[in-house]
Design brief:
It is a single chain. Helix content is 46%, strand content 18%. Strands 1, 7, 8, 9, 12, 13 and 18 form a 7-stranded antiparallel β-sheet that branches. Strands 3, 4, 5, 10, 11, 16 and 17 form a 7-stranded mixed β-sheet that branches. Helix 11 packs antiparallel against helix 13 and helix 15 packs antiparallel against helix 16. The chain has 4 domains: 270 residues, no CATH class; 88 residues, no CATH class; 50 residues; 78 residues, no CATH class. Strand 3 and strand 4 form a beta hairpin. It is built from 18 helices and 18 strands. The chain has 516 residues and is an alpha+beta fold.
Length: 516
């Protein structure tokens, strides 16, 4: 017999969240221009570029980094056409466009930083998604920490692998007896199309030695934008059956254990920040006020809200257990592995290469039971940046892009119709010429030149008249019908060239020769 406890929760982002997928935006699949990143697939290159340009790309591809830079320069030159073929747009954070422009024009080492890691997204719509596996992993870490510290006699030694720790703590031997098999967490999906991603700059900050932070390498990464309230909906269920004992009695208890682990970590970060000043002052102040909100504190105490940290750049502190924060350094060339304490390092969102202050952390989210999100969360989000303005910009760019795409498609259709009409005209001409004799074909050529306006009104000194004279001189052996056609053409050419037969005796005699 089985039954379950079920709760729908809403998720808000308190800082940018990057959940790596192993996929990147290649340098040929995006352009950053005028405050927006335009993303497109390889098919867009074939649609937007000419055969000659595609051949250039093929040649550049075999020339190392220099060739790659040449490819990107070609794409940038044709950016207006490529924008029309963009599959989706992504907002960019402060300093990103300047960093991008500098890197694509910089050294080979700089250019290698153009690779841009993607965050987890829906495959077709491109909307951000927070995988249930990531949520479950973060929750498992918090539960493990509680479990370990609920047994003072328990010694982990130097073990850092979550599954091994879980096996020791719960004393289960097989994976199918893992108590977390009873916890089912669905992917947290965006509630609407307004939920968006953002390209941000990041660098590693040392909480002890600020000098190291100033020289840290900066990179770009895609993240779920911060300050999005009730942006994702998450469903989690705790199953109860006779085969596997669940990790907790109910979901409320599990939420309180999560807060027990993650809340002190965030509080400690804010305390350290008071000394280092890495975080933007407005951000640190707003986040501190949110954590002191009475309604939120009550919800967290009752297990109806929980603070969680997700993603690759959330820091090792959030992924390891209290009092057991060590990492394994693999030995080189047969040397034994080493167990070391965690470094005082954390990757933060920055606004520029030299701007250590004004940063934000990665990965903080707040989950609240559906319908219970405090007003303080919206107040916190309002202090981060003008999301409405950013969404408005994306909407305006998308509308302009759609208009330009429609105009481009119309022009392409009109060009295609012109080409088809010309091809049909040439085919009809070829068919008509095929049915003519050699004499008629020569007359057709003169007729066509006249219709195009050649030498109109310029008199008998022009080549058009000379070519007509040449035909008249050899037409004695032509059939009568063809001589009659040449006569009509000659009269038309006299009018076209503006020749007065009353004044020009030679021209008059030439035409009369056809009449005779």
């Amino acid at each position: 017999m089985s039954f379950f406890s079920h709760q729908p929760w809403m998720l808000s982002t308190l800082s940018p969240v990057h959940l790596g997928t192993g996929l990147d935006y290649e340098f040929t699949s995006y352009l950053i221009d005028d405050g927006v990143m335009y993303c497109f697939g390889e098919s867009a290159l074939f649609d937007a570029l000419s055969p000659i340009q595609l051949a250039q790309i093929s040649d550049y591809a075999d020339k190392g980094v220099a060739g790659l830079k040449s490819i990107h320069a070609l794409l940038h030159t044709n950016r207006e056409v490529l924008k029309l073929h963009a599959s989706h747009l992504v907002a960019i954070g402060e300093g990103v466009e300047q960093f991008y422009s500098k890197r694509k024009a910089g050294t080979d080492k700089d250019f290698n930083q153009m690779l841009l890691p993607k965050t987890a997204s829906e495959p077709f719509s491109g909307s951000p998604v927070l995988p249930g596996t990531a949520l479950k992993g973060a929750i498992r870490t918090a539960w493990l920490d509680w479990k370990v510290h609920s047994k003072p006699q328990f010694a982990l030694k130097n073990e850092s692998r979550p599954l091994k720790i879980l096996q020791q703590v719960t004393e289960f031997e097989k994976v199918d007896k893992d108590p977390f098999k009873t916890l089912r967490i669905a992917d947290a999906r965006a509630v609407n199309a307004q939920v968006h991603k953002k390209i941000v700059l990041f660098s590693s900050h040392d909480w002890i030695d600020a000098k190291k932070s100033k020289s840290a390498r900066v990179g770009m990464v895609e993240a779920v934008a911060a300050g999005q309230v009730d942006a994702f909906e998450m469903d989690w269920r705790l199953w109860f059956n006779q085969d596997v004992k669940p990790p907790v009695e109910d979901l409320t208890q599990l939420a309180t254990l999560v807060n027990r682990f993650y809340l002190p970590i965030l509080q400690e970060e804010l305390a350290r920040n008071a000394q280092t000043g890495y975080y933007a002052e407005s951000y640190a102040s707003a986040l501190s006020q949110l954590l002191h909100d009475h309604q939120l504190q009550q919800l967290m105490a009752q297990g109806q809200a929980m603070l969680l940290r997700l993603g690759r750049y959330s820091g090792a502190v959030s992924k390891t257990l209290n009092d057991h924060r060590k990492i394994k350094i693999l030995g080189q060339k047969g040397a034994p592995n080493q167990i070391k304490s965690l470094p005082h390092e954390q990757r933060l969102v920055v606004s520029g290469e030299k701007n250590v202050s004004g940063s934000e952390p990665f990965g903080w989210v707040l989950l609240v039971e559906q319908g219970l999100t405090p007003a303080a969360v919206k107040m916190f989000a309002a202090t981060l940046y003008d999301q409405d303005a950013q969404l408005q910009k994306l909407a305006e760019v998308a509308a302009s892009q759609q208009h330009n795409r429609e105009q481009y498609q119309l022009e392409q259709q009109q060009r295609l119709e012109r080409e088809q009409a010309y091809a049909a005209e040439q085919a009809a001409k070829a068919e008509k010429l095929a049915a003519m004799s050699d004499n008629q074909q020569q007359m057709f050529g003169l007729q066509e030149r006249m219709e195009k306006g050649e030498s109109k009104g310029k008199g008998p000194s022009e080549k058009l008249w000379g070519d007509l004279r040449g035909l008249i001189q050899i037409c004695d052996v032509w059939p009568a019908a063809e001589r009659q056609q040449l006569l009509q053409l000659a009269k038309a050419l006299v009018t076209h060239l503006g020749i007065d037969l009353k004044k020009n005796k030679k021209a008059k005699e030439l035409v009369k020769q056809l009449e005779g």
